[in-house]
Write a structure and sequence with these properties.
Layout: H1 2-16, H2 18-23, H3 27-79, H4 85-126, E1 144-154, E2 157-167, H5 183-190, E3 198-203, E4 206-207, H6 213-219, E5 220-224, E6 232-233, H7 234-239, H8 247-256, H9 260-264, E7 272-273, H10 282-296, E8 300-304, H11 312-318
Parallel strand pairs: 5-8
Antiparallel strand pairs: 1-2, 1-3, 3-4, 6-7
């Protein structure tokens, strides 16, 4: 099962990165690499099938042989006048009912083994501890304070080392640093995604761990350079930020991100979007994601490289 899922993951990765493989002319290398994995999977599969065939053959011999032996014994006892005709028929039926299900048991055994291999991943998810439901809502005071904040994805590699930060309400604060220094980690902690932190993170004087998650998501909007846009129309995606928004509000927010002129030249708010908005450029996708976030109109916004594909002039206008 592990080999099967690994082969599927490799195939999906190669398919998604096919354009990159073509650019660097590495598709032939990946083809050979995948052929090697497929051959390993084929050999393992053939070994499993051989084992299953052998075990099924043995179970067939036991099942049908046992049933045949029961028939022979029943007929022998009947011809020797040791049992009646009804008793003979009963023994034949019982022999079949006893031995034939053993063949099915052998088949179920192999199905169960495959299920046990797949269940390992399922049980790892089921065994995860559920976070306790918190009932404290966020207050109107949205000032954020972090003190002695530590976080690590792995026990021997700490990302945040006792940092202290204050974000006053109504302020605009930028975190600047080299790649991998923990900027996105801080953003994920403030959104409540990374819960295994040490230290204190308070919002409006309340500890982040004690704030109700739904209240947190209503008051904090997170926008990254990978914000997802759904297949449908521009209107459908914008209304996720504010379901009761009017067309005037939608156009106003599109003007703020300098996307209105482009959409007016298309089909307006009914401009169709393909999966992941693949019919828009990277900058247009980020502008649309920003427009949706601005419609949400929350007290706190967290931008994680949300304007990386937008020109400087437009970024200044939006900010």
């Amino acid at each position: 099962w592990g080999q099967y899922t690994a082969l599927g993951d490799t195939f999906l990765e190669n398919l998604q990165g096919l354009t990159t493989l073509k650019i660097y002319q590495a598709d032939e290398f990946k083809n050979r690499e995948m052929n090697v994995e497929a051959e390993k999977f084929r050999k393992i599969t053939m070994k499993v099938l051989t084992m299953q065939l052998n075990s099924i053959t043995i179970m067939d011999l036991i099942a049908y042989g046992g049933a045949a032996l029961g028939v022979i014994m029943a007929v022998t006892q009947y011809t020797g006048n040791h049992v009646s005709l009804a008793g003979c028929l009963l023994i034949i039926l019982l022999a079949a009912d006893f031995f034939i299900p053993m063949r099915q048991l052998g088949s179920f055994f192999h199905i169960a083994m495959n299920g046990m291999a797949a269940s390992d991943k399922i049980f790892r998810l089921l065994d995860l501890e559920e976070a306790e439901s918190q009932q404290m809502p966020m207050t109107e005071n949205c000032s954020i304070s972090c003190s002695n904040l530590h976080f690590s994805y792995e026990p021997d590699r700490e990302i945040l080392h006792g940092i202290a930060m204050d974000f006053p309400q109504g302020s605009f604060t930028a975190l600047v640093g080299e790649s991998g220094c923990g900027k996105s980690t801080v953003a994920s902690i403030l959104m409540g995604r990374n819960k295994g932190y040490a230290g204190s993170v308070s919002i409006g004087g309340a500890e982040l761990r004690d704030i109700d998650e739904s209240s947190l998501l209503q008051n904090i909007t997170y926008i990254s350079h990978q914000s997802y846009l759904f297949k449908g129309t521009v209107r459908d995606n914008l209304l996720m930020g504010k379901p009761d928004a009017s067309d005037e509000e939608l156009w106003a927010v599109l003007e703020r991100v300098n996307l209105a002129a482009f959409l007016k030249s298309e089909q307006g708010l009914n401009t169709p979007l393909l999966e992941k908005a693949s019919n828009l450029s990277g900058g247009q996708c980020q502008r649309l994601a920003l427009a949706r976030a601005l419609l949400h109109d929350s007290p706190v916004y967290i931008f994680d490289e949300a304007t990386s594909n937008i020109d400087v002039e437009s970024e200044n206008d939006i900010m």
